[in-house]
Amino acid sequence: MVVGLLPSPYFLVIDAAGNAGVGYKVFTYAAGTGTPLATYQDPLGLTPHTNPIILDSTGRELIYLTVGVAYKFNVLDPANAQVAGWPVDDILIPKPLTVADVLGAGVVLTTATAVFDAAAFAGQGVITIPGWHPQGVLCLAMKLEVTQQFGASQGLLTLALGDPGLIDRWGSALTLTVGTKPQRFGGIPMFATPTDGVLSAEGGFFDGTGRATVTRLTLQLS
Length: 222
Description:
Blueprint: E1 3-5, E2 11-12, E3 25-30, E4 53-54, E5 60-61, E6 64-66, E7 71-76, E8 88-91, H1 99-103, E9 107-117, E10 126-133, E11 138-148, E12 158-162, E13 179-180, E14 184-185, E15 195-202, E16 211-221
Antiparallel strand pairs: 1-6, 2-5, 3-4, 3-7, 7-8, 9-16, 10-15, 11-13, 11-14, 11-16, 12-15
């Protein structure tokens, strides 16, 4: 079950005199009906509320709803008198959008990860992965994670991520230390020819030590 929280952290009732609605009763139904419909005390939907929900000494309660299901709420006071302004119908937490909802038919969002290993590139200024960046796709983002620190014995200062056309297309001045670097967006997204991925050395050359993984996010027609 998927549940979601109401827009306010708590369901809160204040009476006509401005006091907390202590002991007020919140009835929950399927929208447009008088059929009781469960709400929950927890975000996993494991513990349902009583129906009605009896508000606490602060006149409030934490209420989770089933996502994508419309509710009707009604409120009575402790003497079972109808509270003005209620019921309220069609209370709904929409289902989150999926990738398919956003992109539509015929559009594919994909990721691919390559390993850039400096072991075979000592004394060179670029590490390449031939054919890694395919032809005719929109490159939305690149993320680089250094998994083994790069050596600086040959003057290497920082890293740049790009392609042979622009070796820092997705960013430069990326540090040599282990960790995930800021994800890079932008640059020229469409390429007319196949393009290799390039991790380039800034300030010097690779000394054969260091490894990074680069994940690209691309968009293309199926």
